[in-house]
Amino acid sequence: MGLSGNLKTVSFPDILQLLATGKKSGVLEVGTQSRQKEVAFKSGNIIYASAVNSSEDLLGNMLLRRGKLSKADLDKAITLHRQTGRQLGTTLVDMGLFSKEEIAECLKLQIEEIVYNLFSWQEGEFIFHEGASPTNAPFLVELSTMNVIMEGTRRIDEWLEIQKVLPPDDVLLALVKNPKINREEITLSLDEYKILTLINGERTLPDLINASPMGEFVTCRSVYRLIVNKMVEVIGRREETEKEDEEEVMLSLVFTMFNNCFTRIRAIVEQIIGEDNKRFNAFVAQYRSGLLRFFPGMGEDSEVKPSYEKFLASVRALPPTTRYHHLMFGLQTMLSEQLEFVFQLVGEGPFREALISVKKEMSEPLALRREVVKRYGLEDSFFKTLKRADKVVKMIRG
Questions:
Q1: What is the distance between the alpha carbons of residues 275 and 269, in angstroms, rounded to a whole number?
Q2: What are the residues facing 366 on neighbouring strands?
Q3: Residue 163 neighbours by CB distance under 10 Å
Q4: CA distance 313 to 322
Q5: What CA–CA distance (Å, rounded) separates 87 from 140?
């Protein structure tokens, strides 16, 4: 089935309708420069969905917000997940923290949020790979696509009304002390009650979304209803605290992300060829100068573990107006060339595996500080780099 195009001309609900009525099996890819999502189908029903570089794809954060997982256990699970390459959900089951059924239920909610979010996309390239199966999917679900279409369409209509009432992001929300409503008339849904317990006069709407265990849409809908029913009110703007050093936050993200990426690339090559690989070592040695020497692609236990403090000092020794562009140009070139070399050295399969691994290493750090990431354009530059590497490989392959 040759289904491809742009959401500007074919809406997401229409695509789902075609796949559902045709009882198609395969994987639908939808993406922009900074966002990419995949939805897998079997006989017209949705069985899996994943999002690259999106906070809703972070299973660990979902479990953390729901109070089902401690920060210490999450950190341990993430470490094991990176060391073994196994999915985080599978790792949590292996650790005995959750049953398969519990993880499957959380993944179902996560998949629904990813799919429903696509209903709001006004543009983005899409392509359906008929017969393809989802990769790295530890648990599959089965959602009626027709039900998803109805719920997604309803959410969009409701969202338009919700947006008219929601307050600005920088104002604090509090409970109305003396609501002008009879106690007998107060009826709260479970969702609204949960949000009500989070409102304390010190949180803004973004704070509530981050603290809520229910996802953005349900949280915003609950806040909307509480405001309309005059149970919650705005009490003023948050006082400005001492501003954090945004450049340092950005540099910390870059340092973590790219070191993790280069470590994953090396691990994939060594899995196939072994640690004593002179060709790969000689290739990456060319980058061990200037700022790039702080990205050796070695793990935490390596003797050449890079020092973030020294990296930060070296970056700040450069002129402020050019330091960021100088750093990112070098890292983007290095990442693209290493990925291309993986293809030349061990073939397309490992190259694709490296590409997926790099995306995963980037997705979590990028999702943690969305405003800084957006301001510095980290998402765009990252995905352009991967596209460049993919384009070169396609040209070589012919």
A1: 8
A2: none
A3: 10
A4: 15
A5: 13
pLDDT per residue over 207-224, tens digit each?
888 777 777 788 888 999
Say which residue the tokens 């089935």 belong to: 1
From CA 11, how far away is CA 29, in angstroms rounded?
14
- pLDDT of 23 reads 94
The position carrying tokens 């352009």 is: 384
Same domain, yes or no: 325 and 360? yes
Output DSSP code: residue 203: B
pTM of the model: 0.49
Which range of residues forms the domain containing residue 213?
Answer: 166-237
**Domain annotation covers residue 161:** no
- Count, residues in the chain: 398
State the amino acid at position 191 in one-letter form: D
3-state secondary structure of 214: coil
Judgement on whether residues 75 and 51 belong to the same structural domain of the protein: yes
CB 77 within 8 A of CB 91: yes
Assigned domain for 156 exists: no
Task: Single out the residue in 192, 216, 237 at which a domain terminates.
Answer: 237
Residues 329 and 381 placed together within one structural domain of the fold: yes
Per DSSP, 293 falls in state: G
Q: Would you say residue 85 has pLDDT above 80?
A: no
The arithmetic mean of pLDDT across residues 321-340, rounded, is 89
User: Which two tokens mark 150?
Assistant: 């109805």
Residue by residue, DSSP assigns 229-280 as: TTSEEEEEEPPP-PPP-HHHHHHHHHHHHHHHHHHHHHHHHHHHH-S--HHH
Angstrom distance (rounded) from CA 118 to CA 337: 33
How far is the C-alpha of 93 from the C-alpha of 95, rounded, in Å? 5
If one counts the domains in the chain, the total is 3
Radius of gyration of the chain (CA): 23
With tokens 């979902």, the residue in question is 62
Q: Is residue 351 part of a domain?
A: yes
**Whole-angstrom Cα distance, residue 234 to residue 125?**
40
Domain with residue 228: its CATH number is 1.10.10.10
DSSP 45-84: EEEEEEEES-GGG-HHHHHHHTTSS-HHHHHHHHHHHHHH
Separation of alpha carbons 396 and 376, rounded Å: 32
